[in-house]
Amino acid sequence: MKVKNICCIGAGYVGGPTMAIIAQKAPGIKVTVVDINEKRIAAWNDADVKNIPIYEPGLAEVVAEARGRNLFFSTEVDKAIDEADMIFISVNTPTKTYGIGKGMAADLKFIELCARQIARFSTTDKIVVEKSTLPVRTAEALKSILDNTGNGVNFQILSNPEFLAEGTAVNDLQAPDRVLIGGDLDTEAGKEAINALVDVYAHWVPRTNILTTNVWSSELSKLTANAFLAQRVSSINALSELCEQTGADIKEVAKAIGMDSRIGPKFLQASVGFGGSCFQKDILNLVYISKSLGLTEVADYWEQVIIMNDHQKRRFAAKMVKTLYNTVSGKKIAMLGWAFKKDTNDTRESAAIYVADYLLNERAEVVVYDPKVSEEQILADLDYLNTRSAEENRANITVVNSALEATQGAHAVAIMTEWDAFKTLDWKQVYHNMLKPAFLFDGRRLLDRHELEALGFEFYAIGS
Ligand code: UDX
Ligand code: UDX
Ligand code: ADP
């Protein structure tokens, strides 16, 4: 079977970029991305392609090329479902905030709603592809809903987890290390569905990089790949604290460790803590699944990665307070960066949120600047924590439009996100703007200690 018409439910960080690249690379396939969020769809359709809702280097160009040709964004979910022969589910699966598994398990209500919608509006056979990160065995639930509520049409379910990292999404999608497709390898219909999806990717991905497995391996690989990556960051962050106590330098240690080809250099960058929509959520999910299966030690082992990460965020904030003579009450602290890493406007689980929250508890006056994150988003992130009222948050945090403005009259500056622009900032001017001693806390090891100290800063970087 040859796929001619793809529908993707969910126009977010995963669905949007992934479908844009499929449309770009397979011009013969019509790709329709649908979302119930009208504002988001309107932004994807904005005449000025720079206004698309997701910032990723190179993405606007891809959208400009394919939009209106074979890439469409729409709110007509039901229509797109029935027209498609392949449907990707790319809706959000946040951590549950209520009930059983609260704070750990993935909330699958959006997935279930999608499944019921697909079942209701499908009048022809469909291949349904899980794109969102899902706990292992979700496909089983999907299948049960589809088969029991549908119009008697056949559904094949595939798992095709996305491994793209934000900030490098376009490149990751155009040249993926591998594409993983899980399906029912035991039946002819299952194999046919797998092959149909393989053919979509084969437009630009070498066949040797397309891996096919059973559904459960595919689902579990996604969770555990993220757990492995996060574990490396927590491991190097744990060593960064040890470095600070011993005179070793984490950069040198990471280099020495990473040159062992069995370990490799990637994901050994010490930081104020990992963030993003995946790492924490997926590990918590893994912990929850392990616990549910009675595997206490396995659960505790992976949970420690999160505990270490929480410690790293708290430790950074505590270091600031301690350095500022044990009080930041009424002091102006400039935070440069709010996104969870550079080159994205995504702030989910960003370390900056937790550091700001800590500083606000210490009654600091926090001023934030991020080149791509809006004031609305920053305030929403803080409100979501529920630590204090929305009014109190607004009384003590200010969002400004430039790094220089943020640092004006500040007691301390903290680098939270490794934006390139912060590297080339006029640090001499920043120093001049600040109260003295001018404290600078580099949560990303972005700046050169010798240069900054020569300008007069009291400089602290994670891990040395
Ligand atoms: C190790 C380091 O590899 C080496 O660089 C250092 O100088 C000394 O310590 P060694 O202990 O000789 O070397 O063996 P190694 O190959 O690293 O294996 C260590 C253990 O891990 C073995 O029991 C091995 O069976 C096990 N292992 C290794 C696995 O179980 N799985 C693997 O994928 C790799
Ligand atoms: C991650 C996975 O990399 C990707 O494969 C998966 O599909 C989704 O989750 P993403 O969350 O976009 O991607 O970002 P990633 O580059 O992995 O970084 C995650 C967090 O770890 C960021 O906060 C980043 O700053 C931090 N990090 C990463 C470090 O602190 N040090 C490192 O060495 C690497
Ligand atoms: P991700 O990082 O996984 O892409 P996002 O939150 O960025 O997560 O995107 C998920 C999108 O899915 C949101 O824009 C949301 O409105 C959309 N969505 C959730 N449920 C449905 C649904 N039943 N039908 C259509 N869109 C949905």
TrEMBL record:
The residues annotated as the active site are 278 (nucleophile)
Q: Where does NAD(+) bind?
A: 10-15, 35, 40, 91-95, 132-133, 166, 278-281, 348
Query: Does this UniProt record's set of keywords contain Cell membrane?
Result: no
SUPFAM superfamilies linked: 6-phosphogluconate dehydrogenase C-terminal domain-like, NAD(P)-binding Rossmann-fold domains, UDP-glucose/GDP-mannose dehydrogenase C-terminal domain
**Leading EC class:** oxidoreductase
Q: Where is the UDP-glucose/GDP-mannose dehydrogenase C-terminal domain?
A: 334-449
Superkingdom of origin organism: Bacteria
What catalytic reaction does the record list?
Answer: UDP-alpha-D-glucose + 2 NAD(+) + H2O = UDP-alpha-D-glucuronate + 2 NADH + 3 H(+)
Functionally, this protein is described as follows:
Catalyzes the conversion of UDP-glucose into UDP-glucuronate, one of the precursors of teichuronic acid.
Protein name, as recorded: UDP-glucose 6-dehydrogenase
From what organism does this protein derive? Leeuwenhoekiella aequorea
The record lists the lineage as:
Bacteria, Pseudomonadati, Bacteroidota, Flavobacteriia, Flavobacteriales
